[in-house]
Amino acid sequence: MPDSGRFTFPAVPAVLLSIVSVQGGAAIAKGLFPLLGAAGTTSLRIGLSALVLLLVVRPKLGQLRSAQWRAVVPYGLALGLMNFLFYCALARIPLGLAVTLEFVGPLGLALAGSRRWGDAVWALLAAAGIALIAPWHGQGVDLLGLAFALAAGGCWAVYIVLGQRTAAVLPGQQAVAIGMLFAALPVLPFGVASGSLLSLTPHLLLLGGLLALFSSVLPFSLEMQALRTLPTRTFSILMSLEPVAAAISGWLLLGERLLFGQWLAVGFIVVASVGATFTARRDAPAMVGD
Hints:
The chain is an all-alpha fold.
């Protein structure tokens, strides 16, 4: 009999709501960039997210074994660097393109070491998507923004590998809460050096709280709930819709319009991601991204 005192979303709507929440959070973050910069915004999001998760989860830090520390510390550092690089990209290029290019990291991880000819098709399709986005004539999309997005994707791939190792030695909620604490370490020096954190006001703290809620606390909770009943492959396919959701969110919330070729690139990478998921040799634990 279900627990009538606790409301839970069905698995698929929970994942879709998580995707919408993350993109709404990204729109809030982009609005904070002119005031706090990418470093200050990342520091505010991760700092408040860590505080909320530590208060809610209350992990027993003193009881962690050395093997758990060795797993969760690099996991947290990768999480922080991934978010910082993504926000650096988001400050320079449209939301839809940033998320699309970031997805190349997990996609590359899924295809790494594969010897199936079908996977080569997905790799070529993803490469075609990147080629469509790249400004070959020196105009259009910011090159440094593209580089930041691809670097964030590389960190996402590392984060998935480290997350799998962490999940094997530490329960999921504790891993996220403790990892978020260490995620602040590679980001805070840049936030402090920028001086933007000194100009925080109650209004900016409120926006930072909403950013932490929509970008971290709510999606993490929804995705953990969904993964209890949803097969990992189904989860991965649903998450492949994120670049499309990002492009639509950027258009509706930020007025960012993509060219036809850029929409085509988003489509190529989404199809490559879904195809790679279908032809994967085995399911792997799915990890949350930005």
